[in-house]
Amino acid sequence: MLMDMTIREFIAELASDSPAPGGGSVAALSGSLAAALVSMVMRLTVGMKGISEQDRGMMQDALEECNALLQRLQEYVDKDTDAFNRVMQAYRMPKDTDEQEKQRSQAIQKALEGAAMNPLEVAWDCLKVLGCCRTAVAYGNPNALSDAGVACLLSYSGVVGALLNVAINLEGIKDEDFKHRMDLSKNRLLKEVNSLSKETMALANSKLDYKGSNTTG
Predict the structure, then answer these.
(1) Is 115 a domain residue?
(2) Does position 212 have pLDDT exceeding 90, yes or no?
(3) Which of 47, 81, 110, 217 has its CA 20 to 30 A from that of 102?
(4) How far apart are CA 28 and CA 49, in angstroms?
(5) What is the rounded end-to-end Cα distance, in angstroms, of the chain?
């Protein structure tokens, strides 16, 4: 299991000539790191003196959501590699007879659809993490504002990186209805993540008086 590796082991495996883990697992990891950072900011905020009970409750709710997202995104790190391996296994199936060719083709299509669906789910979860980042930037402990900003960048990378993996798997899929539905979801995600990340980073930059770009796109 990738998530059972040390950081050094994971990076070494990633840098090897093995095609998996790859970008899909890294996108999920990026989202999980963002969720972990935001969870830290929430915890540092909930314990602050002088915070209103309304804000404390809002941050507690966001913390619980982030914890759930963190768990799911960690699972996706391994799920993405598993999905890629299923695609490779399908391509290795025998094709000596017409029946074998048919079975192989069906297995490839099924595996590719699974490999496209997994990163799409990652992208949606990373977008939810980004929403938690917006809450952390707006209401979180000001001493952890830079952490919330880094989480925003990581969650944005998680969304866009996951969608790149959706796109590459869609190239081999023949079901046009499936591809159309996936494209609609991709376009919606890109629109929402670009808007939310720009807004969140602009707010973080203004609070930090940081002269960097207000966009992650």
Answers:
(1) yes
(2) no
(3) 81
(4) 34
(5) 32
For 22-69, write each residue's pLDDT tens digit: 999 999 999 999 999 999 999 999 988 888 888 888 889 999 999 999
Both tokens assigned to 10: 């994971």
Q: Which residue has the tokens 């808007």?
A: 195
- Residue 4 placed within a domain: no
Query: What is the reported pTM?
Result: 0.90
- Whether 81 is in a domain gets the answer yes
Burial 97-122 (b: 16+ CB within 10 A, else e): eeeeeeebeebbbebbbbbbbbbbbb
Look at the chain and report how many structural domains it folds into.
1
Tell me the three state secondary structure of residue 186.
helix
Region label for 93, one of left (φ > 0), alpha (ψ between -120 and 50) or beta (otherwise): beta
- Please give the Cα distance from 88 to 144 (Å, whole number): 43
Q: Is residue 70 part of a domain?
A: yes
The burial class, CB within 10 Å (0-12 / 13-18 / 19+), for 45 is: buried
**What pLDDT is recorded for position 106?**
96
Instruction: Provide CB contacts within 8 A for 142, sequence distance 6+.
Output: 207
CATH code where residue 72 lies? 1.20.120.680
